[in-house]
Amino acid sequence: MTFLSNLVPGLGGEALAALLSGAATLLIVYAVWSSFVVRDPMASRAKVLMKHREKLQAGLVEPRRNRARAMLESGGIIRSVVEKLNLLRSKHADKVQLSLARAGWRTRDNVVLYLFAKTTLPFVFGAFAAFFLFVVPVLDLGFEIHALLALGVTVFGAYLPEILIKNAQTKRKHELTKGLPDALDLLVICAEAGLSLDAALKRVSEEMGRATPEIADEFQLTAIELSYLPDRSQALNNLNKRTDIAPIRGVVNTLTQTEKYGTPLAQSLRVLAAEFRNERMMKAEEKAAKLPATLTVPLILFILPSLFVVLLGPAVLSTIDNLINM
Hints:
Layout: H1 2-7, H2 13-36, H3 41-72, H4 77-84, H5 91-102, H6 108-135, H7 143-192, H8 197-207, H9 213-228, H10 232-243, H11 246-261, H12 265-294, H13 296-325
Helix pairs in contact: 3-9, 4-6, 5-6, 6-7, 7-8, 7-12, 8-9, 9-10, 10-11, 11-12
């Protein structure tokens, strides 16, 4: 009271008490009114679904816009070269797009860059090899050896984009396989809480964003497709095509059967999560069992010589000193 009287001079204790009681009454009335107000959760959910649909429409229409823009405007050397060679219209372009999607690169620009690199890198590597082997001979190994080296460098340039994509796919599949059991555990919790499949996938993608961004990315895209595409099985099949790993294939089959026959979702996912967790534990135990055999060669090459020097070095030096003194 004394503090408030100092802040607002001229007010007595009774006035301050009345002011505080009025503020408390207003707060109580607001709390009671808020408890009786019925909020409609469908409005916010409808807004979220509309945003997801707009994002998906933008993602689906964007390649067509880029292609039309590329046909009308020759923007950039890379795109113009790919257009003149008609590489985007070939059947190989669809396979390349699927392969890049499995590596985590889904945009059409990545397809254009891959086709350009696949076409030009053999010539670039071959030209550099011919320059350094014939024009400026760095090595003097004979004409036949130089020709074989130039041919090998050219072949390496031709297969370099595929090697990079294979490495990216392998790394991504490993991360997906490693994070799938935890994601399924969260999916079971969401299913038992009463969430639908697309809402559960969206929630799991938000929770797994930092731990496993690959799982979060795939689940987020699948949730968007489930809320947008008319056939829900098509969204699950797209998930299977993008990942191309056996655990995801099992999850997709389970979800498809659940959608088709109405079987309990949480129970099926719990069985899959336990199976994948046991499989991950078995792989860890297998690596631990291989560890002694793997450490044998480093033990022989690096540890045992230093151990012999430490243990036998003083004895050898004392023996040499005794022989010299004799």
